[in-house]
Amino acid sequence: MDFIHALEQNDLNALRSVPKADLHCHAYFSTHLESVERWLGRSIEEAPPLMRGLDGMIEYAAEHLDPHINNRAGYEFVVESAVKDAINDGVAVLKMSFDIRSSWHFERGVSEFCDFVQQLRCRNAPGVDLRPELGIPRAIVGQAPAENQISEALSTGTCSQRLTVRRPRGWMNRPG
Ligand SMILES: [Zn+2]
User: Fold this and answer.
1) Quick check: helix, strand or coil at residue 70?
2) How far, in Å, is the centroid of ligand 1 from the Cα of 26?
3) How many angstroms is it from 1 CA to the middle of ligand 1?
4) What is the model's pLDDT at position 138?
5) How many beta carbons lie within 10 A of that of residue 73, not counting itself?
6) What is the whole-number distance in angstroms between the Cα of residue 165 and the centre of ligand 1?
7) Does the pLDDT at position 1 exceed 70?
8) What integer pLDDT is reported at residue 163 of this predicted model?
9) How far, in Å, is the centroid of ligand 1 from the Cα of 99?
10) Alpha helices by DSSP H, the chain
11) Tens of pLDDT along 42-99?
């Protein structure tokens, strides 16, 4: 079955079997909620079917996701699980962005964060061609500590860079 026909038929299994590229996803938001629930051993309120824009999404994440997964263990689980989900969905090329602020979870900072991303990439090849991008929120561009972290991360060659959209106030404490 070809891709168009599979789409028309809403045939998820057929859609999975077609190799695809996902050229834009955010590591922190890319796994299935059920996987997070299984890992946590508790349920999490589902996102509303219609969100009030980016602010609504941030509010949902702050209230229902961050308390459980905005930490080192949660972040590592979500990211690994997201890559596995992509492989299961037949994604062959995966451009996933890793927010520079996620490096704050790692004791040794940027170098440990980049090692983690690099190992993730190796572990999951050749199942998927993971092409990491460094998520750089405009809100932190020009700020000295963040700029140094960005330079350090880019100098490792692990990630290419992606500028993300301007974030409203309050976003800074959460990795995307
Ligand atoms: Zn995006």
Assistant:
1) coil
2) 6
3) 30
4) 79
5) 10
6) 8
7) no
8) 61
9) 11
10) 3-8, 12-17, 33-40, 53-60, 66-69, 72-88, 109-123, 144-155
11) 999 999 999 999 889 989 999 999 999 999 999 999 999 999 999 999 999 999 999 9
Enter the pTM of the model: 0.85
Closest listed residue to residue 40, CA positions, set 64, 9, 74, 70: 74
Are 39 and 81 a contacting pair, CB within 8 Å?
yes
How many Å apart are CA 19 and CA 12, to the nearest integer? 13
pLDDT above 50 for 166: no
CA of 49 to the centre of ligand 1 (A): 19
CB atoms < 10 A from the CB of 168, how many? 12
- For ligand 1, the distance from its centroid to the CA atom of residue 164, given in whole angstroms, is 6
Which is higher by pLDDT, 144 or 46?
Answer: 46
Q: In what order do the strands lie in the sheet with 91-99?
A: 20-26, 91-99, 129-137, 160-164
**What domains appear along the chain, each with residue ranges and CATH number?**
19-173 (3.20.20.140)
Distance 55 CA to ligand 1 centre (A): 14
